[in-house]
Amino acid sequence: MSDLDTAIAEKQLLVESLRKAVSALPVAESDLATLLRAKEILSGTNVTGVIVNTVTKPEGVVRPTVATGVEAILSGVLELHASEIVSQLEQRFGIKASKQVVVGTILRYANNGRRFKRTKPNTFALIK
């Protein structure tokens, strides 16, 4: 019986390990998508079809414009509140912009029917 008990214990450990790995999969996939998108933006490639506009800072560091960063952020969601957009701009692209600047940038396009649309107060989405 002890061999059978050992085999059961080993399989239980394996099953628990696999459950943890499966539950971590969505987070890992999201992180991978973010990193791939960041690589596209930094290298200037256009694999996902999002227009990649960049600004070169004096020290040679390339980063996306606010509008391009917002477009990349909104490409993965249906809609997002301006506060979350501001947060993700800083986290994903190192762009420190006030909520007023971000909303103003988005509205400049939205009011002309380009790139973005307002879905609710301070909530925006991409025009499909």
Describe it for me?
There is one protein chain. By secondary structure, the protein is an alpha+beta fold. Helix content is 59%, strand content 13%. The protein has four helices and five strands, in the order H-E-E-H-E-H-H-E-E. The chain has helices spanning 2-43, 66-74, 82-93, 99-110, and strands at residues 54-56, 62-64, 80-81, 116-120, 123-126. A three-stranded antiparallel beta sheet has the order 3-5-4. The protein has a two-stranded antiparallel ribbon with strand order 1-2. The protein is elongated. The N and C termini lie far apart (63 Å). The model has no long low-confidence stretch (mean pLDDT 81).
In short:
The chain has four helices and five strands; from the N terminus they run αββαβααββ. It has 128 residues and is of the alpha+beta class.
Number of strands: 5
- Biggest sheet features: 3 strands, antiparallel
- Beta content: 5-15%
Helix percentage: 55-70%
The run of helices and strands is HEEHEHHEE
Chain-averaged pLDDT: 81
- Which class of secondary structure composition applies to the elements? alpha+beta
* Low-confidence spans: none
Strand order of the largest sheet: 3-5-4
Terminal Cα span: 63 Å
The geometry reads as elongated
